[in-house]
Design a protein that fits this description.
Residues 2-141 form the Aspartate/ornithine carbamoyltransferase carbamoyl-P binding domain. By secondary structure, the chain is α/β, with parallel strands linked by helices. It is built from eleven helices and nine strands.
Length: 306
């Protein structure tokens, strides 16, 4: 039995196999339509989610399986004080696989240690979001044709953004990937990402404040929102929330081949006028998210489709 807590739980060879499977699902979804008949996915979401939760549920249903679970801590026995470990022990009696999102870092790991079924980390606080990273990798590889030889700008909340942390950790394993980290001083990447991930892997990176300075150099721009739920006071959030807004004028500074990704939801960091730009790939990214979660469910349940 295998769990997924981090994108680093897969080797690059295993990642290639997973992404190949996701691409095959995209090409021939009918081939996989009954692969998980009789299987149940539990979605244990202790904090709000639209894309991740619905993507997991859509993925399981597209495989012919069923879904059970809860969409907030208030609608579960966590509101009565039940521990994550006891919840997963109970859910293990009903489901074959579980996806858990929790505001506390490490909660999915605690669940995996008590579980009798595979557990997928669907986001834990500001720590990791491995299935978003798998989505990002599939999107980049499908639209760019490669995961190496790229200059990637990561913009916005780089301090609390778990999607950013996970993506950096995954991409440092590929050759000639350069990072431009675009953020205000208050929202720079944590020192452990800078020192233990980027510098430790001898990766080329710059830290800049102005988005306009970075855009002409980029193959990919990964925008993130300033996350209100991670701030301790409203005043700091209000001061930071509109620091970056990607609009048509800024897009004019970017190369024609640059793609714009965003884990969503967006607030106002990408103007709606950018949506019609052919370089805007964030809604394609959502679709790729379902395919990669289908591939992940099949892999963890060890279901083979001929």
């Amino acid at each position: 039995m295998r769990h997924v807590m981090s994108p680093l739980d897969f080797s690059t060879e295993e990642l290639d196999q997973l992404l190949d499977l996701a691409n095959d699902i995209e090409k021939d979804p009918e081939k996989y339509a009954h692969a998980c008949e009789g299987k149940r996915l539990a979605t244990l979401f202790y904090e709000p989610s639209t894309r991740t939760r619905l993507s997991f549920e859509a993925a399981m249903m597209a495989l012919g399986g069923k879904v059970l679970g809860f969409s907030s801590a208030d609608s579960s026995s966590a509101s009565k004080g039940e521990s994550v470990a006891d919840t997963i022990r109970t859910v293990s009696c009903f489901a074959h696989i579980a996806a858990i999102r929790h505001p506390k870092e490490g909660a999915p790991l605690v669940a995996s240690m008590a579980s009798k079924i595979p557990v997928i980390n669907a986001g834990d606080g500001g720590h990791q979001h491995p299935t978003q990273t798998l989505t990002d990798l599939l999107t980049i590889r499908s639209l760019k044709g490669r995961l190496n030889n790229l200059t990637i700008g990561l913009c916005g909340d780089l301090k609390f953004g778990r999607t950013v942390h996970s993506l950096i950790e995954a991409l440092v394993r590929y050759e000639n990937v350069k990072f431009i980290l675009i953020s205000p001083e208050e929202l720079r990447v944590p020192s452990y990402i800078r020192d233990d991930v980027l510098r430790a892997n001898h990766k080329d990176f710059q830290e800049v404040i102005r988005l306009e300075d970075a855009l002409p150099q980029l193959d990919l721009l990964y925008m993130t929102r300033v996350q209100r739920e991670r701030f301790f006071n409203e005043e700091d959030y209000v001061r930071m929330k509109d620091f970056y807004i990607l609009d048509k004028a800024k897009m004019d500074l970017a190369p024609d081949h640059m793609l714009v990704l965003h884990p969503l939801p967006r607030v106002n960091e990408i103007s709606v006028e950018v949506d019609s730009d052919p370089r805007a790939a964030y809604f394609k990214q959502v679709q790729y998210g379902m395919y990669v979660r289908m591939a992940l469910i099949l892999t963890l349940l060890e279901v083979k489709v001929c």
